[in-house]
């Protein structure tokens, strides 16, 4: 009987700590702002939505998918050694795609002050 009472007390203590550790408000999260320059040169900061998960971690996701795909194909064709070679080839090809062939497109706007 003592075991059950002790387990119940420890469980309620842990749940109480879990509830106390949750954040109180969402306002504490970081805001995403973008710098906007008006035609007359004034600078404003405008709140924008948080970028998507893919947009924030684009390079990592592309590299992981390329490595995993290469390892899967190499493993199917050549076993363990083929998986290692395929992972290396997939990593190299995904790095080539991510950093050279499909670079991020940044938009540069010319600000004219009349």
Summarize the structure in short:
This protein has helices at 2-21, 53-56, 58-101; strands at residues 33-37, 43-47. The protein has 114 residues and is mainly α.
Topology (SSEs and partners):
Blueprint: H1 2-21, E1 33-37, E2 43-47, H2 53-56, H3 58-101
Which structural class do the helices and strands define? Answer: mainly alpha
Which H/E pattern describes the elements?
A: HEEHH
Helix content: 55-70%
Q: Uncertain regions: pLDDT < 50 for 5+ in a row?
A: none
Report on the biggest sheet: 2 strands, antiparallel
Shape, principal axes of CA atoms: flat
Query: Mean of residue pLDDT?
Result: 81
Question: How much strand content do the residues show?
Answer: 5-15%
Counted by DSSP, the helix tally is 3
**Roughly how many Å is the radius of gyration?**
26 Å
Distance between the termini: 84 Å
- Give the strand order, joined by hyphens, for the main sheet: 1-2
